[in-house]
Amino acid sequence: MIKQIAPVITIDGPTASGKGTIASRVARHLGWDVLDSGALYRLTALDVLRTGGQADDVEGVAEIARNLDVNFREGRILLRGEDVTEAIREEAVGNLASRIASYPPVREALLQRQRDFLRPPGLVADGRDMGTVIFPDAPLKIFLVATAEARAERRYKQLKEKGFPVKMTDLLEDMRARDERDSNRASAPLVAAPDAITIDSSHLSIDQTVEMVLDLWSKSSI
Ligand code: DC
Prior knowledge:
With 222 residues, this protein is an alpha/beta fold. Helix content is 49%, strand content 15%. The protein is globular and about 50 Å long. Bound molecules: 2'-deoxycytidine-5'-monophosphate.
């Protein structure tokens, strides 16, 4: 049992299921902090790429994860003082993040850093193992899913808006490969916690999904 100093809502799910958007909207509504745990894996991947590290050197990558010099400030993400908010969203970085996230020492290196985000009045944490490994005692756990097609379409729009060149067929293929890897890895795979509530957002708007989570929270915290 991990001492819970403030309430946590965990939102886990596959890539592009809308976790990040839902987590930050729920957090804003409650006046809580938000943890985008995927950003930590993406930052590690970006640092591996930038420092010319070997992606298959498990210990070397874990060392990079351990020493990440990162700052989350007013919605921006700084790596060694440089704003990398957009750079970590590139597909190449996401794909490498998914690979190195399967290394147990990398997950171990990022574990306490994630728990340290928890402080009053509360935290909304999004990722793959928030409800299973990082915050197993969270009073509300959401498992957010959507069909691969719905997710690829959302990611396509996101990347296009940011000016990244993308092809829908490549996106779908990457997404399936990443789902496969995230779900089948031995260490902290993407699975719903037994006490998680699954929400399928394929046909729900952002507002409807946020509303559902807030409704579940108000019922569970009575
Ligand atoms: O949520 P995202 O797409 O930004 O995450 C990038 C990768 O990081 C994802 O493919 C799997 C990994 N990840 C993880 O293993 N555990 C987490 N809690 C969050 C992300």
